[in-house]
Specification:
- The radius of gyration is 16 Å and the shape is elongated.
- The chain is of the alpha/beta class and 68 residues long.
- The protein has helices at 14-17, 24-29, 43-47, and strands spanning 6-10, 33-38, 50-53.
- The longest helix has 6 residues, at 24-29.
- The protein starts with 5 loop residues before the first strand and ends in a 15-residue tail after the last strand.
- Strand 2, helix 3 and strand 3 (50-53) form a beta-alpha-beta unit.
Length: 68
């Protein structure tokens, strides 16, 4: 109905995993700002106008050594 201005989707691929009978893609297209945090280009990222690259777990290690 256009009540949502911004949606942030954290990972996953709801455009693929939600049953087509719910019309997720049509409902998502009504949202002005669509942001998808993901490691992969997929159906949901194709529907969003912002795609933010998510770090792979090997890229997010903390290399600091804490000495006590």
């Amino acid at each position: 109905s256009g009540e949502v201005d911004t949606i942030i989707i954290l990972g996953g691929n709801p455009a693929y995993s939600i049953s087509p009978e719910y019309g997720f893609d049509k409902k998502l297209s009504k949202v002005k700002d669509r942001v998808h945090l993901t490691m992969f280009s997929n159906e949901t990222s194709q529907l969003c106008n912002w795609v933010v690259p998510q770090l792979h777990y090997l890229e997010s290690w903390n290399d600091c050594i804490h000495l006590s």
